[in-house]
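Q: What would this chain look like folded?
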Amino acid sequence: MKAAVFDLDGTLIDSAPDIHAAVNRMLAEEGLPRLDLATVTGFIGNGLPRLVERVIDRLGVAPDQHARLTQRTLVLYNAQPSALSRPFPNLAGALDALRAQGWALGVCTNKPLAPARDILRDFGLDGHFAAVVGGDCLAVKKPDPAPLTLAFERLGAARGLFVGDSEIDAETAARAGVPFALFTEGYRKRPVAELPHSFAFSDFAELAALAGGALDRAG
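A: My prediction, written as C-alpha cells:
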C-alpha cells in the first residue's frame, strides 16, 4: 500500500492568521502588547505549549503563568480555529489525484486532535484522510517519530511518504526512516538546502507526479 502522511499547519493549511489572532486575544486580556504575524508564525511548529512559552519569553512574562496562558490561548483558538485560515492553493486537487492513484492519506500534527479535526472538517478535507494523529494522542510530539509511526500504522502501512514544511517535520521523517517531501511555502525558518528531503515542491499541483518516485527511490 502507498501511504502519505501530511503535517497540518503550514503544509495543508495556512493557519498562522488564526493562531496569531488567538495569541493576541489572550495578550489583550492580560494587558500585554500585541505581537505581529511574522513573530507568531516563527513560533509555530512544536505545539501550542511551546508556542506560548516563546510568546511569554518574548514579552518577559513570568514562567509560572505558562500553563494558565496556554490553556486560555487554546480556548480562544478552539472558539475560532478556521476563521482566517485557508488551505494552500491546489491542495484539494492534489489529494484527489493521490487517492485516485491508490494512496492512503493521513495527518500527523502537533496541534491537539480536536481542533485538527475541526479544521479539516471546516474546509471539507476530512474525507480525504483515513487517519489523523494529533499532538495529544501520545505522550510525545514531533520530532519524536512515534506520532508519525502511529499515523502510518493506522493507515495499515509500515512506512510511506511524509509531507511537511518545517525543520521539525524534516527531523521527524529522518528519525522515522521515511522519505520526506518538503513544501516550501510553509513556516520553515532555514533555507530549503539545509533541510534533508527527498524532494521539495512549492505548488500542490506538482505533488502527485513527484510522490511515487520518492517512494520508489526509498525502496
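DSSP finds nine helices and eight strands in the chain.
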